[in-house]
# Entry
Amino acid sequence: MKRAILLSLCASSLFAQVTFERILGADKEPQNWMTYSGTTFSGRYSLLSQITPKNVKDLELQWIYQASSLEKFEATSLVVDGILYTVQPPNDIVALDAATGRTFWTYTYKPSPDARPCCGHINRGLAILGNVLFMGTIDAHLLAVDAKNGHLLWDTPVAKAESGYALTHAPLVVKDKVIVGTAGGEFGIRGFLAAYDVRTGKEIWRFYTVPGPGEPGHETWGGDSWKTGGASVWVTGSYDPELNLTYWGTGNPGPDWNGDPRPGDNLYSDSVVALDADTGKLKWYYQFSPHDEFDHDSVQVPVLADLEWPDRTGQKKVRKLMLWANRNGIFYVLDRATGQFLSGKPFVEVNWMNGFDEKGRPIRAAGKIPTEDGTAIYPGSEGATNWYSPAYSPRTGLFYVSAWAAYASTFFRIPVTYTEGRVYAGGWPKSYVPDGRAAENLREENEGFGAVRAIDPLTGQRRWEFKMNDVTDAGILATASDLLFSGGREGYFYALDARNGALLWKATLGGVIASGPMTYSVDGRQYVSVAAGHSLFSFALKK
Amino acid sequence: MRSLPVWALVALFLPPSFAQHGYTPGDVQDGEGLFIGNCAICHGPEGDAVPGVELARGKFKHASSDEELSQIIKNGIPGTAMPPGNFRGHELTALIAYLRSMSAAPPETVVLGNAARGKAIFEGKGQCLNCHRVSANGSYVGPELSDIGVARRAAQLERSILEPDAEILPENRSFRVVTQNGMEVTGRLFNLDTFTVQMMDSREQLRSFVKKDLKEFGFVKKSPMPSYRGKLSSEEVADVVAYLVTLRGGNRQ
# Structure
């Protein structure tokens, strides 16, 4: 009897444990979605292919999960062996049956009223390892919750919520650590990334995205400006196991729109940093927007791909690359082993820069800075794209991005002083395109529109686009059957042909899609799932 | 009698002054949940864990009217460890209803033994970890007990060990299904609706079933937990209860 219990315990733990090896080998079990972007390479690409361009018109809604809060639903769900885990904003974790949407359990967290998020009490999702889920909270705690029963295992305060720190992105698990970064770039925080022991929640390493006195890069901040330098982190990074590097995008320097208090390049704001995953030591960085004054956060998901790229002699060799469509309007290709800049091409209208110098530093356009009277800058303050997940399909070889095209803001600058816990911005942007959804849209195309754009990474050229009237905050999912799924502010969820952008199917979900679609399968049936408005929707082919 | 939940007892024995406040048993029940979730971490499930404060005595040092209690719950007591709480409307009514009810419930005395010995029995001879989980050890088959000392009074804990069938809380119910092809699954119930059921099987897997695919399904009335009456001596039971009382989560750093 005792023996039987022991045996069954062993069997069950083999069955359910999400080991880090499983996460690294996510391709081998495409029925599951075990990390924010699907794999640690972050291409948001799935090998599931039951839903095809031919049959996608037969997609039918299977279930809706309505959140009990009216905050934006930005989380990407995780699915492990038929169970779907997601976050109901602000910070409740729910475990649902992925086939029916029915609830197993809800873990409720009440964030402190001290939380001061810039942009809603939102959360973008979870990480999992073993039987444990990890979530950052809007009041800057990192929690570990038992995936079997929703019981809190540990709760580590990461930073001070009342100073403007918050955790909004899905954590990233690397080996036995869980990595998070802090949001709060509008509050004069000093950004950082930190890794915590998955078992205990103890901090193992911390990397400040604004270097302190004595550290390299500190000289890029005049005076004491480093103390309030921002460079927040609010979108999940990536990981390359061969290099043991973890890659993260960083946000704007503070104050946002007035660079006077912070003379210098302001490292490592608006950059990608490559850190040793064991120690948090900086291996390399590349700064996309030195001394930014347009709120051009580089908090995009770093997409890793191994592609043929010409070497110095012009010979094509497979190379470890990073593909990055930036909020500043440029599509970049970097060498992810060294950080070397390989190419940068605009993917929307851009007027703040005119090309790059030899080292890959952008050459600023004269006169394009915020002023008292306002200066029109392309792309505008919400960016050419933003945190919305892009996708990369190794089948088509194309990179897909949700773009804001023909979009400008007029940037105004005002004097600014820092007060703890208050907005530290130094100006404001004005645009035809509102920051949030307007129920009705009256804009002409040249006043800003949304599009899914397909970019050939080897040339930086656009292959095709799918235009929307309104802009889009939706991520993109690509599948091995050459389908793309995305949406936009208008509340449509649609499937496109990944090869040419043709519209193949759409559904009206009636709320802004501000999340990344994902796909999974249960008992051999493929589902495509996305959050819109305050609800999560899951579709599958008609039976 | 034993199987009545605490709030029902309270409803039966409502003293006149309490009834005048016009609370329903539902208010008291909601209040108990809120109290366990938000207050018991300091005040303890019996309301006596803060030195010098006895919430179950029916009299308060800092308040007499409901309005004053409501102010204390909303604003805390400045200069003390009593924190302000973000409660509104029905939550406040429910918390006050529960505070008032604490003095109405008949006091029960329980012998507490030695917690360290209790832990040894819990993990050894008692085989409690075969079904229960404490601080990331043990099984998921029975309810997690990591913070049971916050959630239950000593008398309730003792009763659970001696008479597991007497009161099975809704969140601890077991369910059994038999699929069309004869597979039988019994385990912890998570959720039951008109068309489906979500539960955990004996292999600790979360399972969901569509009722139309089932031959049979229903609640298991008898607790899967054995009674320890006669299996553990009364001293040993007192030791285990003393240990359970110390389980207060402590996951927050």
Observations:
- The helical segments of chain A are 2-16, 20-24.
- The mean pLDDT of chain A is 95.
